[in-house]
Specification:
Layout lengths: L1 E5 L7 H14 L4 E6 L1 H15 L3 H5 L2 E5 L21 H11 L3 E6 L3 H12 L9 E7 L5 E5 L9 H18 L10 E5 L10 H13 L5 E6 L11 E3 L2 H24 L3 H11 L7 E4 L4 E4 L6 H16 L6
Parallel strand pairs: 1-2, 1-4, 2-3, 4-11, 6-9, 7-8, 7-9
Antiparallel strand pairs: 5-6, 5-10, 10-11
Helix pairs in contact: 1-2, 1-10, 4-5, 6-7, 8-9
Length: 327
């Protein structure tokens, strides 16, 4: 099996993304990689990493291939550019290869979220009935469990149907995450709101509450509204919200975690500080997953470093080996 990596579009240079990919190849033997990048850059970086690791570059090139690309999308581009204007961009080339090649099971990109969302729809395809994918991040809860935060940045202005899709997709992903059989009952879904009572929130929130209540008992159990403090309590398996709210929550937690780590370090507790950093640093926590796509797509943080990419590739491997999207 293969995983394809879009090396352009991140805050850093493609060399950083390639180095992370090479480190993945050095640490696992089952999955080969395809780099969508400028061939000369790939050749230089792979040879440098081979020398550092004291292995033959030719051995790495047996497992790392290159799909040539020089054009790429940026965060300043209109996401619709991937439909017509930038169909030769690295991101679009990666999506097309992902769709057409049965040996490619997953894709990793640190490029524009908006462009990745549109490209998922037009160049890969979604599950039947979906209008667009949802972006989901798994967050560690205080009881050691995990919660799927969905949506965390793909749709800033979702409709009622979108929220209903998020609940279903988030619940399904949570079930796949606990595919070892730990979760036997229906996943619990909560709607992030300003209060727990059914009548709280905006007109849209109340409509969504009614819709999720109607659908409860099918693929998930809707437990009602949850407040911000409940998200990491372990009370739900999936927390549903619009992409604006989800993105603020996600980035707020990242920063809060790093602040706590700094406080612990200043107090002389370096071990505790390191543990907090490992928990909240996005470079160690891989990426968000586009839910609803026909194949696995992982969106790395725009400020991804080598460890981020290596973690995202490991995440893609776990999802594929765990059977996510195979049924």
């Amino acid at each position: 099996m293969k995983i394809i990596i879009d090396t352009f579009g991140a805050d850093s240079k493609p060399e950083v993304i390639i180095r992370g990919a090479v480190k993945s190849v050095l640490e696992q033997t089952e999955y080969d990689l395809i780099l969508v990048t400028e061939p000369l850059i790939a050749d230089i970086v792979v040879r440098e990493e081979a020398e550092k690791a004291e292995v033959l570059a030719e051995e790495l090139f047996k497992r790392i291939s290159v799909l040539p690309a020089t054009s790429f999308v940026t965060n300043k581009d209109d996401p619709r550019c991937v439909i017509k204007e930038k169909t030769d961009s690295s991101m679009v080339l990666a999506y097309k290869a992902l769709k057409e090649d049965d040996d490619i099971c997953a894709m990793v990109t640190a490029g524009s979220t908006g462009c990745a969302l549109v490209a998922s729809c037009f160049h890969l395809g979604l599950k039947k009935g979906l209008l667009q994918p949802a972006l989901c991040s798994m967050l560690l809860c205080e009881n050691g469990k995990w919660v799927a935060l969905c949506d965390c940045g793909s749709n800033l202005n979702p409709k009622v149907k979108d929220f209903a899709d998020y609940a279903t997709l988030g619940a399904e992903f949570a079930s796949a995450f606990y595919s070892d059989g730990e979760k036997e009952e229906l996943p619990k879904v909560g709607l992030i709101n300003v209060g727990k009572e059914p009548g709280k929130g905006t007109d849209l929130s109340r409509e969504v509450y009614e819709k999720l209540s109607e659908n409860s008992g099918t693929t998930y159990q809707f437990i009602g509204n949850i407040e911000g403090g409940d998200i990491l309590s372990g009370a739900v398996d999936a927390a549903v919200c619009d992409g604006f709210t989800g993105n603020v929550i996600l980035k707020g937690l990242e920063k809060a975690g790093l602040i706590c780590a700094q406080i612990a370090e200043n107090a002389g507790s370096e071990i505790i500080s390191d543990k907090i950093k490992d928990t909240f640093d996005y470079n160690n926590r891989a990426g968000a997953v586009f839910l609803g796509t026909k194949k696995i797509v992982i969106k790395a943080h725009g400020a991804a470093n080598e460890n981020t990419i290596k973690s995202c590739i490991a995440q893609a491997i776990r999802l594929n080996q765990g059977g996510y999207l195979k049924n």
